[in-house]
Specification:
By secondary structure, this protein is of the alpha/beta class. It has a single domain, classed as Aldolase class I (TIM Barrel). Helices cover about 35% and strands about 15% of the residues. The strands form three sheets. The protein has an eight-stranded parallel sheet. Strands 1-2 form a two-stranded antiparallel ribbon. Strands 6-7 form a two-stranded parallel ribbon. Strand 1 and strand 2 form a beta hairpin. Bound molecules: flavin mononucleotide. Flavin mononucleotide binds next to strand 4 and helix 9.
């Protein structure tokens, strides 16, 4: 029996296997609206056997977009546009998820598809960015420190986006608290220099993520809620694996069901050496210390490697990103390689 192809039920939602699609920005939306590109891109992974397809970091407000070309869920029209994509994913046997995000000081940046980098100026369609403190990332524009009302608006925006995501049919909602975006900026002492209730102590820095998680849970009582963490900033004085363990317990109490354990992205001087499974130790630590459900991610490109990680009890599911881009039918290939029952659609069964 393959561990990777053993179903998993979270909050009553059955996932047919544990080989999932990690969120991937496509920088292909206009005014936050997903379109034909997103439809084909995401539905192909469902046809390719994924248990769960998580749509890209989708902004909860216009100013929360990483680039002007990001998808959003700040309008009902965006939710409508998502609904047919969700239906296509579900019709192909996968569960549909979406990552809800706010980019904070890393918002209003040039889409990498254009070959550019850095802040898009307001004259060129960019916007003024916000963060816990007025500290710029690298050569990006300096953000404005959020005031108390601005912070409450972030919580409300996540809740409203969660409600729209449910209306669109998404069953898994992932709160993006990783990769140096807004919620991560609040978590880390390197980017959060506030001296009010939202900064300073660990309890204060983690407060916004806990509030957002509670709000998403309240807005989407039946959804499976995931939180993506960067387990470490990989920089001196930054957020640590121990912090991630402690914060995982708090967000689980706030209603989160699974921890998705990534790393880095907060500061340009981070020291990370990517290699096969380079973040699995972090996932394993969170799982061991908290007993919570955990997904591992990061260069787990081979089904036998993913299988081993699960069989060894280091994680409960594997998220892959780039391997799905190389082969959108990755899970069909993986099932064949592992001798597991193949999730191939009836139309494709003759290939196996
Ligand atoms: C094209 C692309 C877009 C990505 N966009 C996101 C995103 O929207 N949200 C996120 O949390 N991670 C994003 N990531 C990171 C992936 O989800 C994943 O964590 C990372 O690529 C490591 O997994 P891999 O080695 O299987 O690709 C992106 C990665 C790629 C390659």
């Amino acid at each position: 029996m393959s561990a990777l192809f053993t179903p998993l039920t979270i909050r009553g939602i059955e996932l047919r296997n544990r080989l999932w699609v990690s969120p991937m920005c496509q920088y292909s939306a206009v005014d936050g609206m997903p379109n034909d590109w997103h439809h084909v891109h995401l539905a192909q992974f469902a046809a390719g056997g994924a248990g769960l397809v998580i749509a890209e970091a989708t902004a909860v407000s216009p100013e929360g977009r990483i680039s002007p070309d990001d998808t959003g869920l700040w309008t009902d029209a965006q939710a409508d546009a998502w609904s047919s994509i969700v239906a296509a994913i579900r019709a192909r046997g996968a569960v549909a998820g979406v990552q809800l995000g706010h980019a904070g000081r890393k918002a209003s940046t040039t889409s990498p598809l254009t070959g550019g980098r850095g802040t898009v100026s307001i004259d060129d369609g960019g916007w003024s960015t916000v963060a816990p403190s007025a500290i710029a990332y690298d050569a990006f524009a300096e953000p404005v420190a959020l005031d108390a009302r601005g912070i409450e608006k972030v919580v409300d925006d996540f809740a409203d986006a969660a409600r729209r995501a449910v209306a669109a049919g998404f069953e898994v909602l992932e709160v993006h608290a990783a990769h140096g975006y807004l919620l991560h900026q609040f978590l880390s002492p390197l980017t959060n220099h506030r001296d009010d209730e939202w900064g300073g102590s660990f309890e204060n820095r983690v407060r916004l993520l806990v509030r957002v998680t509670e709000a998403v849970r309240a807005a989407a009582p039946d959804a499976a809620v995931f939180v993506r963490f960067s387990a470490t900033d990989a920089a001196e004085g930054g957020w640590s694996v121990d912090d991630t363990v402690a914060a995982s317990r708090l967000v689980a109490d706030a209603g989160a069901d699974l921890m998705d354990v990534s790393s880095g992205g907060l500061v340009p001087h981070q020291h990370i050496v990517p290699g096969p499974g380079y973040q699995v130790d972090y996932a394993e630590t969170v799982r061991r210390e908290t007993g919570l459900l955990v997904a591992a991610v990061g260069m787990i490109d081979d089904p036998t490697f993913g299988e081993q990680i699960l069989a060894d009890g280091r994680a409960d599911a594997i998220l892959s990103a780039r391997e799905w881009l190389r082969d959108p039918h990755y899970a069909l290939r993986a099932a064949a390689a592992l001798g597991a029952p193949n999730p191939a659609p009836a139309q494709y069964v003759r290939a196996y």
